[in-house]
Amino acid sequence: MMTISEQEFAKLVAYVKKNYGVDLTRKKSLVVGRLQNYLAKNNFDSFSAFIKYVLTDQTGTAANLLVNRLTTNHTFFMREPQHFNFLREVVLPYLVKKEIGSKDLRIWSAGCSTGEEPYTIAMTIADYFRIEKEAWDTKILATDISTKVLDIAVAGVYLNEKLRMVPATWRRKYFNQIDEEKSEVKEAIKKEVIFRQFNLMEKVFPFKKRFHVIFCRNVMIYFDTKTQIELVNRFYEWLETGGYLFIGHSETMNLKATKFRYVCPAIYRKEEEKPHSLNAPDIMHQSLSSSGRW
Q1: Range of the domain at 206
Q2: Contacts of 22 (CB under 8 A, 6+ apart)
Q3: Which of 4, 95, 121, 149 is most buried, with most CB under 10 Å away?
């Protein structure tokens, strides 16, 4: 078994925290467990050699590899179902009245992992609007730092056992069963979600417009308190007045350090617009550029 020295571990932790916000300080065994086989199979004789590869690689390949191996991506359909009930019963009726003129709803699933969350949002929206859906633009931007999970999300193929929380009517309506083991999200729902790689630690959020709803659930638990506060306040800036932020039930928010108002467990709202401008660029970041909507 390849070991990692305290100096090597500290250097790797610092790199990941600086660039991706994830705090691995107490995750030494996880780091070693997820990297040692790759290092051995690819002829790295030490963690120092691998860290040097990550720091000097200009193609982004090494960074993507590191992120794909170290990030945790546990999720499932209908996770924390109270949120989707609230979206349907409170948020969507409010937004329909507010945006009746534009018929434009902008929703961001930040840290979307393998796609279950944005697809659940899309199904909730489709079920709410029904025949009126065609009159509205409700596409969901779903982002994650890991290209590995985004590939799974785009494919939209899941084990049938992972659909057990999805209502039977939704399974019939929004999925095509491939065989006894797997099903695929129907194209109509796939088209509602735009998947892009994006790092929440980017200095500039490259969006053209604010969002009405942001889901960022079970992501900030991997960040330290300072990073959490900074990210939450950036979410505030990128929400429309009256917009909602959903976080994970295992996460907490320091209301003294943010302008959000608590609504109910893990749901917060932006109620007042503050008189300052956004520093958003006129064009999209390259990783998001294929859709003019964002």
Answers
A1: 81-288
A2: 16, 70, 71, 222, 223
A3: 121
